[in-house]
Amino acid sequence: MAAAGAQGARSGGGGGSSGAGGGTSCGTGSSRSGLLDKWKIDDKPVKIDKWDGSAVKNSLDDSAKKVLLEKYKYVENFGLIDGRLTICTISCFFAIVALIWDYMHPFPESKPVLALCVISYFVMMGILTIYTSYKEKSIFLVAHRKDPTGMDPDDIWQLSSSLKRFDDKYTLKLTFISGRTKQQREAEFTKSIAKFFDHSGTLVMDAYEPEISKLHDSLATERKIK
Amino acid sequence: MLSLDFLDDVRRMNKRQLYYQVLNFGMIVSSALMIWKGLMVITGSESPIVVVLSGSMEPAFHRGDLLFLTNRVEDPIRVGEIVVFRIEGREIPIVHRVLKIHEKQNGHIKFLTKGDNNAVDDRGLYKQGQHWLEKKDVVGRARGFYQENRSVEDRNYLFLILEL
């Protein structure tokens, strides 16, 4: 019933949000080629297969990211993601080296190089597993709020989420790390994904965005009180 | 612009996510490749798993069976063992049993092979003028085999014997 109500409001709200989205992309579109503009569909409502758990989680994560980056104008920090990409790239590099070396020097001569590459590859796999389990956890966004005075270090906002397999409860956790005091505060909510998607699998931003803003403001206002 | 809805997921990704998808695929391929190369290093054979292509070793091996090979330098080849060898100039390896061996003091050997199900030895298969095989022609010695179920009674019955 909540989804049906949201669907009625969506046609009005959807037009409004796509207008705002069109506004932001129009501003940057002038600097990109026309083809790239047509490729990007940032302002099109997100429609996914509602039974596909990973697609649901990805779309919710991406939309939460969009809210934080566009509404509050934070700057995304790619450090965590870049770390994972470099580890994967190095692993693939070892594999390619092994492949080419074995092709150029047929098997018995290439044994030591092959052994080295294989061991390095599996070591990198181990490093990758440790990295994703302990350093990255389930954080998908690290955003910085630049201090307007430019004096103090940035405040850091981290978003992490979880959605269990075949479950409908989505947990979104927002962590705030103050730049000055290095204190960490977090807030989270757990809601059923049925609250944010309509029957056809379209994400209803009008239902989702207030949740994010609520989380954000609960952490931001605490800071002011202190 | 064509409306390709199924590409929506891809269009929504930024450069990093696209690169990560490409890397993901690369890692799957690399993992398979590394496992194969790792097997090559461990067994010492350039083709650690081979498929039996002909019926020349029946009733021991049938067409379609998988063989696990090792090619360690320390293991000598003895009569009665099953070896997989490649004849010079031919690409496809052959799986037959060792019949006769001549061995020198320094360990250099020449051997003759024959398929269990063949009437004659393999001299007809060897290169013109070649009467014996040498260690360098060997791809590996069979250490274990995997046979799919052959008869109706043996449904889902797998044999896997690994002598280490």
Automatic annotation (TrEMBL), chain A:
The keyword Membrane applies. The chain crosses the membrane at residues 81-101, 113-131. It comes from the Eukaryota. Residues 10-26 have a biased composition (Gly residues). It is found in: Endoplasmic reticulum membrane. Keywords: Endoplasmic reticulum, Membrane, Transmembrane, Transmembrane helix. It is a multi-pass membrane protein. Residues 1-36 are annotated as: Disordered. Pfam families: SPC25 (PF06703). The keyword Signal does not apply. Belongs to the SPCS2 family. Component of the signal peptidase complex paralog A (SPC-A) composed of a catalytic subunit SEC11A and three accessory subunits SPCS1, SPCS2 and SPCS3. Component of the signal peptidase complex paralog C (SPC-C) composed of a catalytic subunit SEC11C and three accessory subunits SPCS1, SPCS2 and SPCS3. Within the complex, interacts with SEC11A or SEC11C and SPCS1. The complex induces a local thinning of the ER membrane which is used to measure the length of the signal peptide (SP) h-region of protein substrates. Component of the signal peptidase complex (SPC) which catalyzes the cleavage of N-terminal signal sequences from nascent proteins as they are translocated into the lumen of the endoplasmic reticulum. Enhances the enzymatic activity of SPC and facilitates the interactions between different components of the translocation site. This is Signal peptidase complex subunit 2. It comes from Galeopterus variegatus. The gene is SPCS2.
TrEMBL record, chain B:
It is a single-pass type II membrane protein. Keywords: Endoplasmic reticulum, Hydrolase, Membrane, Protease, Signal-anchor, Transmembrane, Transmembrane helix. GO terms for molecular function: serine-type endopeptidase activity; signal peptidase activity. It catalyses: Cleavage of hydrophobic, N-terminal signal or leader sequences from secreted and periplasmic proteins. Pfam families: Peptidase_S24. It is found in: Endoplasmic reticulum membrane. GO terms for cellular component: signal peptidase complex. SUPFAM superfamilies: LexA/Signal peptidase. Signal peptide: none annotated. Residues 37-127 form the Peptidase S24/S26A/S26B/S26C domain. PROSITE patterns: SPASE_I_1, SPASE_I_3. One of its GO terms (biological process) is signal peptide processing. Belongs to the peptidase S26B family. Component of the signal peptidase complex paralog A (SPC-A) composed of a catalytic subunit SEC11A and three accessory subunits SPCS1, SPCS2 and SPCS3. Within the complex, interacts with SPCS2 and SPCS3. The complex induces a local thinning of the ER membrane which is used to measure the length of the signal peptide (SP) h-region of protein substrates. This ensures the selectivity of the complex towards h-regions shorter than 18-20 amino acids. Catalytic component of the signal peptidase complex (SPC) which catalyzes the cleavage of N-terminal signal sequences from nascent proteins as they are translocated into the lumen of the endoplasmic reticulum. Specifically cleaves N-terminal signal peptides that contain a hydrophobic alpha-helix (h-region) shorter than 18-20 amino acids. This is Signal peptidase complex catalytic subunit SEC11. It comes from Saimiri boliviensis boliviensis.
